[in-house]
């Protein structure tokens, strides 16, 4: 640990490991307030310019986005000869992946409670010219107060108005068809991924399925959104309309994040509450991928 980090924080137990480093729990020296410290071994990425750029971009992106109530907050960045240390907000609650796995399906009200802050976080990113590019349940965290926090900006990219970016980035079930096809794309790839999350919460299975990554990508490229009667018959026309607009293969017709927030289903009363999973099932905040 760097001398400056150890001066300001008391680094404690390990919370998780990844390819390039370790996440620790740490306490602010003068107050005892808990945080997470993501410590990245720069020697492991010295010969990989892409990985190195992604890791440095993550800190820059998070600094630009903070503070926002629905984005994981960054507090300090320390760097020494061998390590980059990023001090982050600590989320001891579970992530959305665990919450989806712990239940069969979500009611519309429960899904609404998740989607509103998630889309507010995505809209905040897009307003500042940032495309997340890896929206998935694993990167949607909850803190001790059950507040949603969008995390893991290692794949994020800056974008100007009207600009397109490239690169096959993301996770098979959640990646947009234009990414799979190798075309240039814009910030609406995040809306597609959020639409997949909404579908999974309501149905209990993904809209585009396969037994392998190539099969999943083929289904994503077809982009044939189905609403099986046995699952969707009891759901409102409004939520099905929203799903069609978020999962539109035609990017021009696909909703923006702001349009999603303005949709009648999003403006509904909701009334649901997402029950946190037990603490022993929860995963610590920032797992380095």
UniProtKB/TrEMBL annotation:
Any coiled-coil regions, as ranges: none
SUPFAM superfamilies, per database record: Protein kinase-like (PK-like)
Single Gene Ontology MF annotation: protein serine/threonine kinase activity
Record's keyword terms, sorted: ATP-binding, Kinase, Nucleotide-binding, Serine/threonine-protein kinase, Transferase
Keyword GTP-binding carried by entry: no
Cited CDD domains: STKc_CAMK
Ranges for domain Protein kinase: 9-266
Pfam families reported for this sequence: Pkinase
Similarity-based family: Belongs to the protein kinase superfamily. CAMK Ser/Thr protein kinase family. SNF1 subfamily. Belongs to the protein kinase superfamily. CAMK Ser/Thr protein kinase family. CaMK subfamily.
This protein's name: Protein kinase domain-containing protein
């Amino acid at each position: 640990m760097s001398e400056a980090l150890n001066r300001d924080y008391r680094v404690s137990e390990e919370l998780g490991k990844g390819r390039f480093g370790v996440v620790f729990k740490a306490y602010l020296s003068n107050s005892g307030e808990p945080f997470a410290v993501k410590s990245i071994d720069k020697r492991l990425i010295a010969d990989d310019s892409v990985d190195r750029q992604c890791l440095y971009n993550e800190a820059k992106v998070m600094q630009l986005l903070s503070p926002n109530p629905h984005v994981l907050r960054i507090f300090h960045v320390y760097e020494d000869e061998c390590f980059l240390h990023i001090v982050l907000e600590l989320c001891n609650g579970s992530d959305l992946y665990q919450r989806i796995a712990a239940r069969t399906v979500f009611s519309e009200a429960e899904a609404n409670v998740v989607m509103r802050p998630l889309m507010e976080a995505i809209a905040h990113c897009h307003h500042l010219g940032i495309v997340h590019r890896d929206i998935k349940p694993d990167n949607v965290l909850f803190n001790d107060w059950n507040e949603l926090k969008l995390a893991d900006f290692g794949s994020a990219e800056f974008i100007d108005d009207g600009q397109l970016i490239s690169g096959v980035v993301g996770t098979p079930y959640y990646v947009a068809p234009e990414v799979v096809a190798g075309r240039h794309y814009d910030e609406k790839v995040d809306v597609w991924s959020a639409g997949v999350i909404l579908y999974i919460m309501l149905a209990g299975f993904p809209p585009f399925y396969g037994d392998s990554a190539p099969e999943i990508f083929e289904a994503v490229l077809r982009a044939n959104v189905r609403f099986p009667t046995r699952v969707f018959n009891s759901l409102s026309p409004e939520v099905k309309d929203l799903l069609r607009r978020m999962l539109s293969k035609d990017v021009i017709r696909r909703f923006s994040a702001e349009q999603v927030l303005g949709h009648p289903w999003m403006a509904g009363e909701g009334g649901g509450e997402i029950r946190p999973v037990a603490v022993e099932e929860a995963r610590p905040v920032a797992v380095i991928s």
